[in-house]
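[step 3/7] fold_predict: job queued, chain A
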Amino acid sequence: MPKDSLGDKLERQVDKLKGGLKDVAEALTTEDPEPRTPGMAGRITPSAPRARPKTKDELYADAKRRGIKGRSKMTKSQLERALRRG
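[step 4/7] structure written:
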């Protein structure tokens, strides 16, 4: 019995896969009376990466550059609020 070449074997496998995919696609379209659209899927792309939270030292340096008074006695959250206010 002659052995099939690798190309022939791969071609048969690809044909089987294509046939299986067609069957699945047909089943999905016949079962679903209302086809889905890409817009129905919602947001696919990941959201923008969040900024890394600043350390108290970084906030202090920002406050110093802006000339915020009393910064040396402020906590991290107080520095954040003062910087947000301007």
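[step 5/7] annotate
The chain has a mean pLDDT of 81.
The first helix runs from residue 6 to 31.
exit 0
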